[in-house]
Design brief:
Layout lengths: L3 H7 L1 H58 L12 E5 H6 L20 E6 L4 E9 L2 E10 L9 E2 L2 H8 L6 E3 L32 E3 L10 E7 L2 E2 L9 E2 L18 E14 L6 E13 L2 E3 L2 E7 L4 H5 L3 E6 L1
Length: 324
C-alpha cells in the first residue's frame, strides 16, 4: 500500500508546477482588477472635463442672450422687483436655439433661467443653468450706461472716465496787436463805420469753433416668426425594420422635425438549424412612423433703426447686438 508521502515523493515536479500556475493565475487576476478600476476612472475624468467645457459654454451663451433680451421695456421698474425668463419660455418663443450637455441630454428647462433684479442704483443679473446633476450660476452687476450696446451692460471704468471729461470748447482771444490788416480787394466796396458810439474797446473778439454733430448709430432688430405645423398623424402599423431605422423623437422646439419613429423588439423564430433540426430564434425589430407637415413656413425679419425703437420692440422685435 502506498502512503500519501510516497505519492508526493514520486511527483515533486508536479507539485512545483502546480504552485507556479496558481501564483501566475493570482497575478493575472490582480492585474485585471487594477485595470478595471483604473481605466474607467481616467475615462470619467476626461468625460468630466469635456462636460465642464460644454456646460460653461452653455452658461456663457445664456449670459450673452440675457443682455439682448432685457430691453428697456423689460427692465424691472421698482426696487427689489425682478424680471425672469426660463429656458423653456425662451425655446417656446424661439428666442434661443436649444442646446444639450456633453452627453447629448437636454438641460433642465425649468430650473435654468435668467433673472434681472432692480437695486437702489443698479441691477443684479443672475444666470442659472442646471444640467442633470450639475448646476451653477453667474451673478453680475449691470446698469443702463450710455455706452451700453444694449439696454444694460457691465460697468466699464475706462469709459466712465472718458464720459466724465468735460468737452471744453477752445476760445481764441484776438487782441488788437494780433489783428492783421484786412486785405481789401479793389473790386470789393468798403464800408465805414458811421456809428460814433462803436469803438474797438466794445468789440467782442471771442471766436467759437464749430462743433461737428455726432453720427447717428443704427441698431439691428430681429423678429422671428415660428412656422405653423399640422397635428401629428396616427402611428402607422408595425413593419419589419429591414432598413435599420433608428428611433427618432422630436423635441417640442424643433419645428424642422417632421417625422418620428418608434421601435419594438421581440424574440421570435427566424428559421431551422440544418444541422440539429431545431428552431432558431433571434431578436427581431419592428418600427412604426408618424408624420406632420408645415402649414406655414417660419420667417426671420431684420430691420435697422435707432436705439430703443419702441414701435419695433412692441411688435416683437429684439436686438441682435449688431450696430452701424
Amino acid at each position: 500500500m502506498y502512503t500519501e508521502e510516497n505519492i508526493r515523493g514520486r511527483f515533486p515536479l508536479r507539485d512545483v508546477l502546480l504552485k507556479i500556475m496558481i501564483v501566475i493565475i493570482f497575478i493575472i487576476l490582480i492585474l485585471f482588477v487594477i485595470a478595471k478600476v483604473m481605466g474607467p476612472s481616467d475615462n470619467r475624468e476626461r468625460k468630466n472635463d469635456n462636460y465642464d467645457v460644454v456646460f460653461n459654454e452653455n452658461l456663457e451663451a445664456m449670459e450673452t442672450f440675457a443682455y439682448t433680451y432685457f430691453t428697456e421695456d423689460r427692465l424691472p421698474k421698482e426696487v427689489e422687483d425682478s424680471a425672469e425668463l426660463t429656458l423653456r419660455e425662451a425655446f417656446n418663443l424661439n428666442l434661443m436655439d436649444s442646446f444639450t450637455d456633453a452627453n447629448g441630454e437636454a438641460c433642465d428647462v425649468n430650473e435654468s433661467y435668467i433673472r434681472l433684479t432692480k437695486n437702489e442704483d443698479d441691477y443684479t443679473l443672475r444666470v442659472n443653468l442646471k444640467c442633470n446633476e450639475q448646476e451653477d450660476y453667474l451673478l453680475t452687476k449691470v446698469n443702463t450706461y450710455d455706452y451700453c450696446e444694449n439696454a444694460i451692460c457691465e460697468r466699464d471704468s475706462s469709459k466712465d472716465e472718458a464720459e466724465n471729461e468735460e468737452e471744453v470748447t477752445p476760445e481764441v482771444d484776438i487782441t488788437e496787436e494780433e489783428q492783421e490788416e484786412p486785405v481789401v480787394d479793389s473790386k470789393t466796396p468798403t464800408y465805414s463805420n458811421t456809428n460814433p458810439s462803436t469803438n474797438n474797446d466794445n468789440i467782442d473778439n471771442t471766436v467759437t469753433l464749430p462743433v461737428e454733430p455726432e453720427p447717428t448709430v443704427m441698431y439691428e432688430y430681429r423678429k422671428v416668426t415660428a412656422p405653423i405645423l399640422s397635428n401629428w398623424s396616427s402611428w402607422s402599423s408595425w413593419k419589419l425594420n429591414s432598413n435599420g431605422y433608428t428611433a427618432v423623437k422630436c423635441t417640442t422646439t424643433d419645428t424642422s422635425c417632421l417625422r418620428e419613429i418608434q421601435l419594438f423588439k421581440r424574440r421570435e423564430p427566424v428559421g431551422i438549424d440544418s444541422t440539429t433540426g431545431q428552431t432558431v430564434t433571434d431578436i427581431v425589430t419592428y418600427y412604426s412612423v408618424r408624420t406632420r407637415t408645415i402649414i406655414r413656413e417660419g420667417s426671420t425679419d431684420l430691420k435697422w433703426s435707432t436705439y430703443n425703437d419702441t414701435s419695433l420692440l412692441n411688435d416683437g422685435y429684439t436686438y441682435t447686438g449688431n450696430k452701424r
